[in-house]
Structures are given as structure tokens and as C-alpha cells.
């Protein structure tokens, strides 16, 4: 069954119930759409694309900020048999052009926030036959989405495709190199619906708050758990502790997926007195879950102080695995906070050495996974595909280990391991240690080249607002670490993260690897 059938079923079963709500607190705007309205909008857009010659196997790029139109546009593309190609809203003009070229896109759908970038590359994307603008004051080179929606019928489009057909191309975040195009099928997308719902037990009465960008597999595939049961979702535009809490309170939300920085911001706002939990109705908020990056156990301990009755889960996945769920902690396993968990529903996982042989319990190796969400491959790139897909297994590039109960713990990205004097140092272990410091808001550890040791670990720290922290204080705190794991240099700066919360360590290496003043942190 193609994933578009789930939308059509919801429109039949719950036509007048609210499907999506958009909240934009900065301008006090709230919009909503029913399941029937959602289906009708997707059908109209599909019919507009079909009338323009878009069909099975074509690619349509979607470049928009989160908004009420985003998902109807996405499903409209899928309903034609074409492939949706969502792009990162932080991509530069040149990155956008490159992705359009790589995907061989026929149509570009974009919002007003990207007009300047599109103008910059418009003469160099000649393969694109049509530009569609979603917003007010449509520019001359594009067609207006609103006008198209008024011109085409809401009847289901006539387009032949199956659940085995290609559905989407997602580009990697680019944190470890140039973005790569990931090819996903309708089967992949449907499997994400099933896995997510099985993990978090969404029911029709649930209400999911979606904050991360919809172009990424993480946010959308978590929402897929709501799609499969026809439950409501809120698209929140803007990240602010007060806005998040107001949304949960006023919309009676039951599930919120946060990134680590946002959870930290909420806790900091509570502890500073910026927000008072007594001013919000939060008793229905049953689940907070986090993904996209390692979660410091100290953060969850802090969270449970203020939300002791709330369930918690963490999710692990990659765009290559159709987003989160190939490994997950499980709401019943909060006693294992710090682990990413066990293989997800319908998934297998192993930890292997460089030869692909499973390593013993407790030993570090590369995490590999196998299941229904594994991508078809990198689009038009068989060489890169062969490097990551081997005998049906997806090689994640993440280093991990299992404990005696089978729970998997991420150690670090394979490319981020610091080798200092022959010792493997996993930055995430040092980051977790430093996150426990009361004055530290965020932290990243990278390896810096060193003539004698090969590399040395270096910490970049972001201090909580209103707190003071010196290098000497950090040095003293780090004395609790084994000597070889102690950061040899400390810098104070903001930690760059991409929209899905992952630390952009390449930017930190570029900025700091020329700084050579080694601190006396040996002890």
C-alpha cells in the first residue's frame, strides 16, 4: 500500500476532524486544516503537477520552511507517482543548485524565504521546467501555488504507481561531507509509520507537536506514527521554551519530540524562573522523546525532576534507514538512560569489526542494521551505495557497544574517534561527562592534530546564560576523567548544530584546529 492511501483513508474516516495545526507565536497566528481538507489540497496539487507533465519517476524539489502547506505539497507530489525531494532550508544557493542537478528535478516548489537564493541560481537550473511559489506576492518567474489550487479539482488524481515504487529522495545533512541523495520507496515510508506507531503507541486521540524541520526524515517519520491512526499534529514555527509549553498546554498535546538543545533550554528556563510550570496545563503530556544525537544522561535526570510522571524515549536512526526507529530505547527502559536501546520493531542490529565480524559484548565496533526501512541506495551512485550497503546490512558509521543486557550504547561517529598516542578516545564520552557540569549548556569535543601524539582531545564549551566558568574550573572538573581522556585545550564558544540538532564538528575543526596553546590539564 503506498503511503498516500493512509491520507485518503483518514479523509474518509475523519473528514471533519482537525489533521494539522500551524502555530506561529511570533506573529500570533494559528491555522488549521481537516483531514478532508488535507486530502483535497494534496489532490489539487497532484492534478496541477500532472497537468504540467509531471508523472511517475519525475522529481519535484520541495524547498519550504515548516508551514501548513508543507505536507499537502509533499503528499500531492507522491500522488502523481513522482518523487518528492525535500531540501534543507539552510542550504546555500550553490548547495540548492547542486541538489537540484543531482536529483535531475523537473519542478521546484519553494517559499518566500528562498527567493534571494533562487534568484542567484535561476539561470543555472535550466533542467527545471516549472517554478511554483508558495506564499504571497508571487515573483514573475514562478506560478502561484494559491492560484493553482483554485484551478484544479479535488478529485483523486489518476496516476499508476505501487508500494514498491520510488517515493522520495532525501539528502544527507552534510555533516560528514557533501550531501548524498538517499532513495526511498513507498514501502520504506510505510515501514516508518508502522515502526514509529509500534514504539510510541500513538492512538487517534493523541496530539503530536512537530518542531524540527519537515524536510528531514526525523520529524516527518515521527509524525508518520500519527498519520497511521489519523491523530492530530501541531506544526510549531519557532523554538522557544515558553512557546513550546504554551502549545502543549493550549492544544492539549500529548507527545513532543525535542532535540537536546531545546530540552536544555526548557530546563534552563524553568530553573531561572523564566517560566513557571504552574501556569500551564501539562498533565496530558504523556511522552517526551529525543533523537538525532546522543542524549546526555544528566539531561534526562534533570528532566525527570520536573516531569516525573512523563514517559521518556530516545530514538536512533539515519536518513538511510528512513529516519528514526531502527534502534530505540523503549518507554519502559528508562533505567537504561544513556543507551540508544535495542533493535527497533522489525529491525536487526549487530556491532562488527572492520572485517564485518560481530564483536564480543562490551567491545566497541561499528553498528550495522537491517530492516524494512533500509534505503534503496544513493541515487545514481552505486559506488557510494556499495560502501554502506553490504549483504542487506546498512553500515551506519557509528561506533557502539552492547552491555550485558543487550542494550546498545553509541560511542561516537567512526570519523570522529580521536586517536591520541595510540589510544582510541570517543568524544561523546567526554561530552557526556562535561554535560553534567551545572554551568555548561552545551559541549563538543574534537580531535586536534598533534606532532607527538597524533591527535589531542579539545573541548569547546557553551556556558549557561548568567553563569561564569573559567578554564581553571574546567581543568579541575576534568581531573575526574582518566588522564588520556582529559581535554588538552578548552575554548568557550557557541556550539554549531544543524537543524536536526547534530553538532557540526567540521565547522569546529576548521575554526579551532589552528590554535595550538595546550593547557596544563595533565595533573
Commentary on this structure:
The chain is of the alpha/beta class. The chain has a domain at 418-512: GMP Synthetase, Chain A, domain 3 (2-Layer Sandwich), CATH 3.30.300. 29% of the residues lie in helices and 27% in strands. The chain contains 15 helices and 27 strands. The strands form 6 sheets. The chain has a 9-stranded mixed sheet, with helices on both faces. Strands 4-3-5-6-7 form a 5-stranded parallel sheet. Strands 17, 18, 20, 21 and 22 form a 5-stranded antiparallel sheet that branches. A hairpin with a 4-residue loop joins strand 14 and strand 15 (323-328). Helix 10 (260-272) packs across helix 11 (297-306). Mean pLDDT is 90; it is low at 516-523.
What share of the residues does DSSP label as strand, in percent? 25-35%
Distance between the termini: 62 Å
**Approximate helicity band:** 25-40%
Structural class by sheet pairing and helices:
alpha/beta
Oligomer: single chain
CATH superfamily of the domain at 418-512: ANL, C-terminal domain
Keywords for this entry:
9-stranded mixed β-sheet; GMP Synthetase, Chain A, domain 3; 15 helices; 27% strand; 523 residues; 5-stranded parallel β-sheet; alpha/beta; disordered C terminus
